[in-house]
């Protein structure tokens, strides 16, 4: 038997692939990886096929060829990156394996279709509308009200998601966001389909105030299990929304978290997600009402995997592969969660890296469990809104929630990317 991962090379997913390789060894299965531009993936998998995973028919064709050349049947298909979800759904449909349907994979990546699906089930969310021109945007603004958020219809990583506070800001930023949104998603597997459906429209949403949380769930047999909730304790009020700090367990009261759990399950049903991991963002309104920002049919990015493992003991990569293989996942959490957080850091401005300060000290700390750097001395780095991948991340634990926050501020002040 073998496990097939659809992938797009990204350093922040190395741990996921390492764990998938160990999983395959434990189960005496082969690990097959299909990826755009594979490099280090070759060290981990039994077979690596280089294919443009943005091209869904090409990916399905490559899997067909691979399946024909393998002596063992493919038992599972999985994806740890947003980009690869639609192709994984198509491959799963072709091979008759468990995964979200192609329809659900499309709805969940099409932010307007997702809003419509959530509306049909009365799930609390921001007001929204489409606009192709500034005139249409003004009409939508009259209905939605300011502040508003402008965003691409497909794509992720908070690219070109921008708050605008009034008509002047809308006029100033509409065309730039529209251009960036479509230019930025040209390599997306759903790009051609989305252009056909929306031409050059972007999505306009009512701005939701409140603390953002990120909910990691695992669905098996159609049932939603919330495995971890991370708070994003720093204010995220825009105009851009780069993720910086996550902490878990959540500090919201039990009744709010119960509602979050219900709404996450309801969102899955509304969109048609019935299996695998999901990553859902909410903003908690002042009165405690959660409103959904969005959901994705995959595990949260980069350090979320390690953070869940440290705080709950649940290994989400194993769980994803178990569910994909038709096995029951082990989602039993340790009785008391370990306060865990992660910090996604950026340079302060664009430039060439001259030194990385505080990194060695952080690495030596017994509270730091993972430190990843995605730049080195001499690298050219850019910052939001032009670049969205953080330049590194650090995952850390503490004995209490308060200590965790102090530790975050300590790391945030000591880790510095110095520029020439
Ligand atoms: N309607 C909204 N109100 C307030 N903040 C929002 C809204 N939509 C998006 N954001 C902020 O922008 C971030 C990225 O938007 P999102 O829709 O999740 O796009 P992406 O797919 O790029 O992650 C969110 O995590 C949130 O912080
Ligand atoms: Mg998001």
From TrEMBL:
Q: Which UniProt keywords apply?
A: ATP-binding, Ligase, Nucleotide-binding
Ranges where the ATP-grasp domain occurs: 115-325
Keyword Lipid metabolism (UniProt): no
One annotated GO molecular function? metal ion binding
Q: Which InterPro entries match?
A: ATP-dep_AA_Ligase, ATP-grasp, LAL_C2
Q: Does the keyword Lipid metabolism apply?
A: no
Database matches in Pfam families: ATP-grasp_4 (PF13535), LAL_C2 (PF18603)
| Superkingdom | Bacteria
Do you know which PANTHER family this protein is assigned to? Answer: ATP-GRASP ENZYME FSQD, FUMIPYRROLE BIOSYNTHESIS PROTEIN C
Q: Which named protein is this?
A: Biotin carboxylase
Give the organism the record lists.
Saccharopolyspora spinosa
